[in-house]
Amino acid sequence: MALELPALSAIVARLPDPKVNLAAYGGIVFPLALIIEAPIIMLLAASTALSKDWKSYTKIRRFMHTTSAALTGLHILVVGTPLYFFVVEKLIGSPEEIIAPARLGLAIMLPWTWSVAYRRFNQGVLIRFGHSLTVGKGTSVRLSANIAVLTIGYLAGTIPGIVVATTAVSAGVLFEAIYIGIKVKPVIKNQLIPLAEIKPELSKKAFLQYYLPLALTSLITLLSQPLVSSALSRMPRALDSLAVWPVLSGLLFIFRSFGIAYNEVVVILIDKSNSYFNLKKYALLLVSLTSGLLFLFTATPLSTIWFQYITALPSSLIPLANMALWLSLLIPGANAFQSWYQGIILYSGKTRGIPEAVALFLTVTIITYLIGIYLVNLPGLYIGVIGFSLGMVSQAAWLKFRSRVALKTIYGKS
């Protein structure tokens, strides 16, 4: 999945008006789409942890469909009414030239939230019952759909980059959701339904007590996306920074993805015999490998090759991107630590520490951005990356603190 954004950026950068279309996607469309879907992001973790019998599965499924319908309605409201201009002009402060193309792109993204919710919910079931390889295959289906649409857009050469990018994303999540839906059916029939009902059964109140802190977590986390756009729009080199941001984010997500995926691994395996020390050892290995590989990538010509030849970033923006990459070195390791500690907290069922950590992340980033806007005369991209890095480290540190109580709940370790 981490390859999706670099692929989008690489094609959009090769179509007309690359700076405007990259900025429209990275500065408005993607952040707003993420905010709208925020309440369903944690369905993967919740489904992995709680789909223990048929009744639990159906209750979570009902919640998924109801929430997805409401969020899709919100998406229509944002893109189809004057609320759009209030958000992008007043709240985000986006440059004028990206507002119209971004609105078209956001309209094309309407299938996004429901498709992602359905896919993540059923991916949790697949992971819980030992079919994580199917999840990976589903992602390859998504990427194949992305590439097919991107190739058509590139060969046509005249379709606006924002249209190509958002059509590719929408097609990708739709096809992946369909694939996962097909693959989960035999798992439900042969592995989930035959299981004995858990006692006490998962009540609506118990589910909401578990899930609402997670939904709040994803909402606060994803608020950082439009927050970044708003901050970059108010600092020097706004359009340049907004254009580089999705390219840089896509590259960083490749290195972060290994750590992000570790969260569900911890949830599933933390209670197994002798698993704690092995999981902790692997978390440290993830930190070392991902941070080390990003350092090598940044310190060698690989970064310039990536920005110049792979993503086709305009040459005037490459020095800006390279310097921002140096400021990002802490991010992959922080992500791996977050997944380790968050997985422990998720398994314990006491999820309050997770939104606390994300609130700290948001507080640190906001303070950093305010300093960048009012006190420091640096390109916005640099401040954006510094704020994100410091926020990620602060979040990991708080999760570590809160995981101590969770470990005692699980098996008395500290």
Task: Provide a descriptive summary of the structure in words.
This protein has 414 residues and is mostly helical. The chain has two domains: 1-200, no CATH class; 234-414, no CATH class. 81% of the residues lie in helices and 0% in strands. The protein has 17 helices and no strands. The protein has helices spanning 4-12, 18-37, 43-50, 54-80, 83-91, 99-108, 112-128, 132-156, 161-192, 204-233, 238-269, 275-299, 302-310, 318-326, 331-348, 353-374, 380-411. α3 (43-50) packs parallel to α7 and α10 (204-233) runs parallel beside α16.
Q: Structural class, from secondary structure content?
A: mainly alpha
Outline the biggest β-sheet: none
Q: What share of residues are in beta strands?
A: under 5%
Mean pLDDT: 90
Radius of gyration: 21 Å
User: What is the string of helix and strand elements?
Assistant: HHHHHHHHHHHHHHHHH
List how many beta strands DSSP finds. Answer: 0
Helix amount, in percent? over 70%
What is the global morphology? Answer: globular
Residue windows where pLDDT falls under 50 for at least 5 positions = none
Individual helix count: 17
For the record, the count of structural domains works out to: 2
Subunit arrangement of the protein = single chain
The end-to-end span amounts to 34 Å
